[in-house]
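ok so for the tutorial part 2 we go from a plain amino acid sequence to predicted structure tokens. step 1 is just haveing the sequence, like this:
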Amino acid sequence: MTYSVSGLSVVGVIGAGIMGAGIAQVLAASGFQTVLYDTRPEALAKAQADIHARLDRLAEKGQMGAQDAAHAKSRLRIASDLADLAPAGLVIEAIVENLEVKQALFRQLEEVVPETAVLASNTSSLSIAAIGRACRHRERICGMHFFNPVPLMKLVEVIAGPATRLEVMQLATDLVGRMGKVAVVAKDGPGFLVNLGGRAFYTEALHIEAEGVASPEQIDRIMTAGCGFRMGPFALMDLTGIDVNFPVTGFIHQGHQYDPRLKTAPRHERMFEAGLYGRKVGRGFYDYSEGAAKPAAPEPPEPGRAPFRAHVAEAHPGFDALAARGLESAADADPILVSPWGEDATTVAARLRLPAERVVAVDFSGAECGVLTLMTPPVASTALQPVAEWLAAVGYRVEIVQDSPGFVAQRILAMIVNLGCEMAQTGVGSPADIETAMRLGLNYPFGPLELGDRIGAGKVLETLENLQAVTGSDRYRPSLWLRRRAFLDLPLQARP
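step 2 — the prediction. this is what the tokens look like for a chain of 496 residues:
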């Protein structure tokens, strides 16, 4: 058998929901005769009307020619019988995320389409091998995971099952390119690239909140204002829906043999059980009901300059930057400033034999964005308020959290990097595809490996090793990909 996108004229789409309709629209607009099938006539009628309306709006906005929109509409055919998919050289399934239902559909499709047709699933996390388990020709089955909204999202994950032929993968990736999108290739496994890689952002934030280190509002502010993420982890969970996020997290954790690095926190399940799914129901980690008070970020301070005496107990480049704003280091000064990687303030005070009430730990992870995070050992502090007030006076937005190994940003960023490294180590995707998937699929400001290179592989490794030592948890077990490249001073993005 030969598979070539140049010989592909008819593409079938099964499922007239939001995803299926979006896929069908882009296929028709890309020049393919598109057959959209669903068992529900009302869903088909709605999908056709919505697709036509969206194409008309694109033409009205000048984003598509009027004639091109008319041609795209003419290439879309609505089918009420599965047999109408017989001419298709490729069929994309976009139905309910249920393994048994998908398996039954693929068995039916084998009786309809020729042996040369490729069968693709839009599953976001189910195993391609499992979907095709009962099929006769498993070599022509692959995954094509689009992201919602399909017309706008550029990324498509193309997933190879253990039996999938290379020619099938090539056809799928070529088709993605013809649709004006970017393909990344992922190995079959729970969560593929994007859903697996995204776990660190959510779950570490949940653990930080569960430990009483910081509130969801604080964590979200630190990650957006300080680290450049478009949304914080809690706001993002509310947007995607905890009814989706929690089951996927559990599925991925189980599918990866209960690796503690992928484990969520108890509140995640409690929110799911209580039906507090987020925006779609009006309440999640935040209250979206009409009239509800919205979390307000602190007003940015007016920049200024003032001298401030403190004892800098350990060198850090961040303290050099503070010296330019008036920090004067003196051994006899009352506040004692430290900036640990992966340690809590208590551990640093004990290690350096410092008086705990005078110690203030500073995290410079958000310094470039003007955000600094402070914490102290759990004692009555004589130094925290003066340090916070001075930093605000010289132009920083200050977040104060409870004592925690790795503060907030260090922990979340280190876990994002570590999971990206583990994905590279286990061959879930190439380093380049991991980077592309996280940036386009999750809107991360950097891919996890580039992020690690920006922080420094050695610093990420130090953070994780200290987190593991302080907490005693294998959740912070460093990936071998990270460890080896840190030891050899190699970029994390470098392949062997």
